[in-house]
Amino acid sequence: MNKVQAIALNTFKEAVRDRILYAILAFAIAMIASTLALATIGAGMGPKIVRDVGLGFISIFGVLIAIFIGIGLVHKEIDRRTIYTIISKPIHRWQFLLGKYLGLVLTLFVNVAVMTGALMVLIFTFEGVWDGRLGAASAMIFLELMVITSIAILFSSFSTPALSAIFTLSFFAIGRLLEDVSLFGELYAGPMGRTVIEGLYYLLPNLSRFNISAEVVHGLPLGEVVSGMTILYGLLYTLALLSLTALIFQRRDFR
Amino acid sequence: MKRIGFLWVTIFILALSGSILVGRGLEARGGTREVPDEPLFVPSATFLRYASLGYQTMVADLMWIRATQEFGKELMTKKRWERKHKFLFPLLDLSVSLDPHFIGAYRYGGLLLHVVKQYENAIALYEKGYAANPDRWEMPHDLGRLYYLDLKDHEKALYWWKITDKLPGRPQYIPRFIPRLYAGAGHREKAIELWLEMLDATDSEWLRGIIHQELEKLGAPVR
């Protein structure tokens, strides 16, 4: 486990040294702060708009960081040929992958925490309240980012960064629209089509399960959506994708 | 090397100053051309729901802002009245279709439609809000107010305020309004019965005074 920890910390250090990450983070915080401008023209809907748009930006920038760092995670090591040095050491390939994944997840955790902190401070400054429910929404965004990172690292293990970015973005879009795809199947598909769509529905990541912004913003009960089952779903799906990545990476021939 | 650096700095300052001067010149000639800001069409809620990739509450906020901007801008234009605010209801409807729990958009949107006398659209918006949020008192309350104050339809006002009366968090004055509406709708006996019920239930001298006045208006014996 020490080996995984060493790789994870190294990946985290490498990511936080990257100036692009700081640029994205600074831009994200500036965008979150800019929600105040929208709130002032929101005709009395300011508090809702600040929360909605703020959480939206945390998710959008989190997804961008997850995809654009995730896709280069393994490919960069292969491209720089540093992979030869690593795999020649007494370390399993899955340990290398898991370390890389955890390093990026740690980076995302810090980013999401900073962005959420900025949003909470902004709300406290203008409304005088600490909105703890935003923490729940951010935790679910983080869980969604864990799944997206595992998709990015899966494609990164056998494809080029450009293709990996396209595939991961496509999976993100499908994952966010999966409920509608299922509804479409129920309404319009024949028996065979319905079976295929149902199969895809359970096979593909249902990312809308992690989107609880509406419940948080409207003060609706979170019990149903933020249940242990949703968290378990996210963790199991991530584990499944990481296992598939490890299988592909294990069979890959580096010559 | 220093000379080249100096040259670039000089070119930068000159070009920037020149662009500012030219910009000011353009402004003096009547400013930039006016871009027509009126939307040509309003996209469907279904399309926006897919296109927003789950960020639909955020898009709903933007549609709400767009609707209020549209309202404010058109108040100041010299368009013919019937051509005004034609996008107000579609934008409000889009906003609440994307975020069905957006109570403020139903309430204040309904009020904007009420101001521009689009009563049918205001009713449609409130009814949509009640259908999506049957445990919220705000929309049936506003519907009752619209029927009572503007459309003078006491039967319908009574219908909606009776619904409001059963919902949690409703304003304290609703029970007092219901007997008045019964009276307004011609149900004198029912109105007296409700006032008397209320008289028995309250210890407030202020409220008892109001109830006595109302009973006197209906010509009922006061206990």
N-to-C series of helices and strands of chain A: HHHHHHHHHHH
| Overall form of chain A | globular
Using the coordinates shown, work out and report the CATH topology of the largest domain in chain B: Serine Threonine Protein Phosphatase 5, Tetratricopeptide repeat
| β-sheet strand percentage of chain B | under 5%
- Residues in helix, % of chain A: over 70%
**Can you tell me the overall shape of chain B?**
elongated
Distance between the termini of chain B: 104 Å
Report the top-level CATH class of the largest domain in chain B.
Answer: Mainly Alpha
- State the low-pLDDT regions of chain A, or none: none
Number of helices in the DSSP assignment of chain A: 11
* Alpha carbon gyration radius of chain B: 28 Å
Counting DSSP E segments of at least 2 residues, the number of strands of chain B comes to: 0
Q: Note the beta-strand portion of chain A.
A: under 5%
What is the β-strand count of chain A?
0
Largest interface: A-B, 26 and 20 residues
Number of self-contained structural domains of chain B: 2
Helix fraction bin of chain B: 55-70%
Helix/strand order of chain B:
HHHHHHHHHHH
Low-confidence stretches of chain B: none
CATH homologous superfamily (4th level) name of the largest domain in chain B: Tetratricopeptide repeat domain
End-to-end gap of chain A: 28 Å
What descriptive keywords fit this protein?
heterodimer; A: 255 residues; mainly alpha; globular; B: 223 residues; 2 domains; 11 helices; elongated
Lay out the secondary structure.
The complex is a heterodimer of chains A (255) and B (223).
Chain A: H1 2-17, H2 19-40, H3 46-70, H4 75-79, H5 82-87, H6 93-127, H7 133-156, H8 161-188, H9 191-203, H10 213-217, H11 228-251
Helix pairs in contact in A: 1-6, 2-3, 2-6, 3-6, 3-7, 6-7, 6-11, 7-8, 7-11, 8-9
Chain B: H1 2-28, H2 45-51, H3 56-76, H4 88-98, H5 103-115, H6 119-132, H7 138-150, H8 154-165, H9 174-184, H10 188-201, H11 205-217
Helix pairs in contact in B: 2-4, 3-4, 4-5, 4-6, 5-6, 5-7, 6-7, 7-8, 8-9, 9-10, 10-11
